[in-house]
Design a protein that fits this description.
The protein is an alpha/beta fold. The protein has 3 helices and 6 strands. Strands 2-4-6-5 form a 4-stranded mixed beta sheet. It has a two-stranded antiparallel sheet with strand order 1-3. Strand 5 and strand 6 form a beta hairpin. The longest helix has 22 residues. The protein is globular and about 40 Å long. It starts with a strand and ends in a 9-residue tail after the last helix.
């Protein structure tokens, strides 16, 4: 079976302070995703690339959008724009965007007939929200 990592997360940022705060939040999120099985191989994987709209980094979109789809790598890449002054809710914000990105990737995968669902990635996102004391639980 050809396979790809379940869910990979990374950030594209410039050198500004605000951008680094967002990048740090994305790095924290990635460590948690990885601990929950983000590198586990599945038939189709998702890669979420956070593009931080701070400083000199140009971002010409809002929310999430499909960046690319690679049948060879069996991966859907979703670009996620994050912008604004990071505050104490930055961890919740990057998690909310991850949820949107996985939803978009799953919609694209199903619409194109690639797979019925991205259950493994979805479970990781849900488990992130369930973990107490991490600032990500839903109120």
């Amino acid at each position: 079976m050809e396979a790809a990592p379940t869910l990979l997360v990374r950030a594209v940022v410039d050198t500004g302070h605000e951008a680094r705060v967002w990048e740090t939040a994305v790095d924290r999120l990635w460590r948690r995703v990885e601990a929950l099985g983000g590198r586990e191989l599945v038939p189709w994987g998702v890669q979420v690339v956070y593009v931080v709209a701070a400083g000199m980094t140009p971002v010409d979109f809002d929310g999430v959008r499909l960046g690319s789809l690679s049948r060879k790598a069996r991966t859907l890449v979703v670009k996620a724009a994050v912008r604004g002054e990071p505050d104490e809710g930055v961890d919740h914000a990057v998690h909310a965007v991850l949820d949107q990105a996985v939803t978009l990737a799953e919609q694209v995968a199903v619409r194109r007939g690639l797979i019925d669902s991205l259950d493994h990635a979805r479970r990781i996102v849900e488990r992130l929200a369930e973990q107490p004391g991490d600032g990500l639980t839903r109120s």
